[in-house]
Amino acid sequence: MDKRIERILPLVQKPGRYTGGEYGEIQKDLSQVDLRMALCFPDVYEIGMSNTGMRILYRVLNDMPGVWCERVFAPWFDMAGEMKKNQIPLYALESGDSLDKFDAIGFSLGYEMAYTTVLEMLALAGIPLHSGERTGLTPLVFAGGSVCCNSEPMADFFDLTIIGEGEDVDREVLELLRLAKREGWTKERFLAAASRIGGVYVPSLYTPEYNADGTLSAMRPRGGAPERVTKRIVEDFENSCFPVDAIVPNTEIVHDRVGLELFRGCIRGCRFCQAGHIYRPIRSRSVEKLMEQGKAALAFSGYQEITLLSLSSSDYRGLNELCDGLMDYCEPRGIGLSLPSLRADNFSMDIMQRVQKVRKSGLTFAPEAGTQRLRDVINKNVTEEDLLRSCATAFQGGWNGIKLYFMLGLPTETDEDVLGIAELADRVVHCWRENSPNRSRGLRVTVSTSCFVPKPHTPFQWEPQVCAEEYLRRVRLLRDHMKAKAVTYNWHDAETSFTEAVLSRGDRRLGALLEEIWRRGGYLESWSEGFRLDRWTESAAALGIDLPFYANRERPLDERLPWDHLFMGVEKRHFLREYRQAHKGVLSPDCRAACSGCGAKEMLKGGRCDG
Amino acid sequence: MDKLRLVYQQTGRARWISHLDAMRTLQRAMNRAGVPIRYSEGFNPHALISIVMPLSVGAESLCQMADIRVREDVDIAALPERLTAVMPEGLRFTDCYENADKPAELKWLRCRGLWEYDKADPAKLADTCRELFSGDVQVMRRTKRGEGLLTVTDHLRELTFSPEDGGVRVECVLSAADPVVNPDLLTAAVRQNLPQAAPDAAHFLRLALYKADGSEFH
Asked: Pick from A156, A70, A143: which is nearest to A111 by CA?
């Protein structure tokens, strides 16, 4: 370890996150390596190490002969300050080498508020921010992850982005880079060739054109780049990589447990949900495979907890069988099994009760909206009866705490819908009085609201976000009607939701804004310590950028959207149809009840969508 | 007999693992190695493992000890190797035995440290330090009960300084119980009493533990 780093570690909080050396870390002999990849996560170690995508890609890329993939996380403010003061460049945990030694620098991007952190990490590494300023073939700076489904806000900075799942396409990009390095290609030649790989988007090969009113009019590809980039998926999900030998951190991380990935995609089609649309088609793993992976991962890691990962675990066909099988293994070993993402229905509660024998976790439901009318608008197929029946079962079973998640500012929302949240909370309290076997222990109902953020590739992608003042008015309205003592009401602040709405549907012109915010100190903005709204408003004013144009404007259905040339598998006509159904207040059946023909199953050549 | 004492080293990159994280790491390693560790019987069961003398973050040790309870007999001789195979870098088990001394019998700790000086002459500084500690030296320290002055020299049995490339080598035997004197207090003592001789960096390595009579703590 670098002496200079050892000198600053005693000065910072939680130094264990900056050292590497964990169990399961992959070390390679540099003489056997001809391509070095830095897998970067633009947030702190505890967050990045909890990310399933990071765990998978670390294994997939290190399985490539001659490739050494190492991890890089964003240092917390204290560490970043010490590194700058002592001129220590950002380094990778495995080798301790600084990023300028790497051929490929890939960022995993899961949320918009991480964008300025990417810029700071590049700056800490001494790497020019703009793709155009990096004239050599290496380092190639690229990104993948869910937010890349609208790559435009970061288009100035990345040489390319990966659209869809990275398992296969990341490997293809690195193989091409290795060939280019060996044969001495120029960066231009490499990017032109990379743009022909399915799932690769090279922003510099596309020129945006704008209308007089500032909206986008066209996106012109050149040099043979495709008109529309289609995302990549793992077709054979059953046999795709699941790293049973993932790194076990030395220090506590956010999701400090084994996470077993049941399936990708979602059958529900909630109209606000981006994940439910961009991860289609639905592909699941068999119970046998999951049992095998779960046991192997527990044995390797020594973790005392395992959790099931998916967008809606109740919709996994083999859930009963899987839970029983896992409990047979976990119970005698004192291993806890937790089941997040459950729907509020009877079936789920039954499983929950059987599973939580070792450690009882909290119970969380997300009705998302307070009235049935609005739940129908957003296509959240949960009724109040479902929810109250599940609560009754839970209270009878001894749970005495429940969390309820809602969004405010959903399309068509009225004050009646807002007050419906308070009424629903009251009914939950009433349900507890009628069902709790031991009322002396008291009840805690936590109601949380966040501000709806319209996202690309969803039926609500044209919707305006309500302005911050209006969101806060609804928050106050709701707060004033939350009367029960057992109910705690938390609301997410309006400011980050607003900036998230700007970025999620932003275009290429926001690159300058992000750079300006970063210059004014924006870093780790998903943390309250790193975020300040005035940095945003001042930067926007300085550059003449109108933030509400992006966040609060209702977009005409025929407007060209900045992500229209990136195809996530679901056709735009499906979003349009769902948009119209929403405004009629009509539910759409889930994928198993009736296929909606969204288009995603066309991505499975010969395979079938598990919808 | 269900009580076992494990002796391990914590060096290199592992010296940045905190006490709580070390506890978690040990517990997971027991699971990986299939050691039938005993669990508490509460609402939230936890493994019965305790570290005899927790190590502060940044310090290294060749004599860390962890007491564990097991549910069934294990092959004691094979255990250190079995555990080392599943540990992160820098954690290495060296011994395992029954009938260990009670933690209350622990009294003295032998340490070796390096005080690094970037600019000064080590030989001169070794003399300065020796001179400082030849009399009573007090240090302000923070405990759970607030700040207080401790005469650190009252709780030392040995203390030597020798010049070395890049700094001054410190060897000491200091009280490990009643009161616990962290070797970092020696560094703090210099910083407080003789700021011009304060090292640019300091870190210690634990070498051995003793009972009150000076015999080895087993």
From this structure: A143
